[in-house]
């Protein structure tokens, strides 16, 4: 294990990697329930999607650890599942079987692009200031998700967003946030994980004392549930190749590709997971794993798989090798049979970890030359639009387009690579579609 994962070289230990894997899993485990709740609205059986979600998350995360040797979990992507349900199935009237076929074919396109290094070339075409900005933007995005999960930040018609009402649940979140921050400042090993456990235990009495919806250790729906393989191989491979379905496949390809690329770039820049050439470590293998995850998703009955930004929780906990992803991936497997147990961990328990992850992910912004406005403005737009649009893809699209436009008008056309021109074209196509 030491030689395969090069633990000493990466300055980590088996114990640290296990703690990091558990931390990443706890921050990501919500997808096991959330993904079925979204896809079931497309007419798919909840239990079948749950089983598919666990299979994709387990296999893809373990593959990321063993093959790409990166501490990044892979699971069905948020946003992609919403597009699957609300745009493709409910919006365009495509059957979920055909939509699964579109997921499969988009995975095949990913795989071809990855094998022939096209996706790697696209990654390397991203200007370094935009890479730093994407890392910071993802950090802000994760922080926003954490605050929203805790209902610390809520929708407000008058001010767009605002502070949520102070109540026992919010006070519990703040206590968990403070404890986790103290543990991190004092460099306590497993601080993120301890914070999650503390907040979960602190949430226990709320349901008894204040009759809130946070009573995770008593009112959960049993322990065991049998896996449902009814969606296995239910995709429609023939009708999903019709011309009318091409926009759906393109949307899956573009969104998943730039979500995964920007996630790899952001996590690598923030955690210094770089190779000797200054590129994200084992990027070809990582992107190939992402492609396999999407292909597998179509076969077993889920929306596309993608690298998870919540992996930053495990990385901040010290995860530096593929062992983190292997541990996190293995933890998905028992939930083929024990999915109801996930109700033990409320959203406010993982929220402090998500909020604090942003503190280390914004570090790369100091590498941006803010005095060069033709670089600073695109970087700024990419950074702020990721959380403001609630979309990594939208942030990176407008970062690319503004970079190209400003370089053109300032007479620096040579700084726009051919690959970036191609990216810009597909970015415009994505906006049109």
TrEMBL record:
Keywords: Cell membrane, Membrane, Transmembrane, Transmembrane helix, Transport. Signal peptide: none annotated. It is a multi-pass membrane protein. It holds the Pfam family Xan_ur_permease. It is found in: Cell membrane. InterPro entries: Azg-like, Azg-like_bact_archaea, NCS2. The keyword Cell inner membrane does not apply. The chain crosses the membrane at residues 12-33, 45-66, 98-118, 130-154, 166-185, 192-211, 231-254, 330-360, 380-403, 415-432. The keyword Transmembrane applies. It comes from the Bacteria. Belongs to the nucleobase:cation symporter-2 (NCS2) (TC 2.A.40) family. Azg-like subfamily. This is NCS2 family permease. It comes from Pontibacter ruber.
